[in-house]
Amino acid sequence: MSLELLEQLESRVQNALDTMELMQLELEEEKQRSSELASQQQQLEQENQQLRQELAAWHNKIEGLLGRLPSDSAA
C-alpha cells in the first residue's frame, strides 16, 4: 500500500470513529429523554387515576343528593 492510501484509510477510520462517538452521545441523550418521558408518563397516569377517583366520588355524591329529592310519582 502506498502512503497516500494509508492516509486515506486513516482519515476514513478517524471519520468513522468521530461518527460513532457522536452517535453514542446522541444515544445517551435519547436514553435520558426516554427516561424523563417515562417518568412524566407515570406521573400523568397517577394524576389521571386520582382524577377518575374524584369524579367517581362526585358521581356518588350527586346520586345520593338526587336520591333525597322527592319523586314526582306521588303527584
From TrEMBL:
Species of the source: Ferrimonas balearica (strain DSM 9799 / CCM 4581 / KCTC 23876 / PAT)
Family per similarity comment: Belongs to the ZapB family.
Location in or out of the cell: Cytoplasm
Any one Gene Ontology BP term: FtsZ-dependent cytokinesis
Main location: cytoplasm
GO CC, any one term: cytoplasm
InterPro entries: Cell_div_ZapB
Residue stretches in coiled coil: none
Transmembrane segment boundaries: none
Quaternary assembly: Homodimer. The ends of the coiled-coil dimer bind to each other, forming polymers. Interacts with FtsZ.
Bias (Low complexity): 35-49
Disordered: annotated segments: 27-49
Keywords for the protein's UniProt record, in alphabetical order: Cell cycle, Cell division, Coiled coil, Cytoplasm, Septation
Keyword Cytoplasm: yes
Top-level taxonomic group: Bacteria
Protein name (database record): Cell division protein ZapB
Annotated function: Non-essential, abundant cell division factor that is required for proper Z-ring formation. It is recruited early to the divisome by direct interaction with FtsZ, stimulating Z-ring assembly and thereby promoting cell division earlier in the cell cycle. Its recruitment to the Z-ring requires functional FtsA or ZipA.
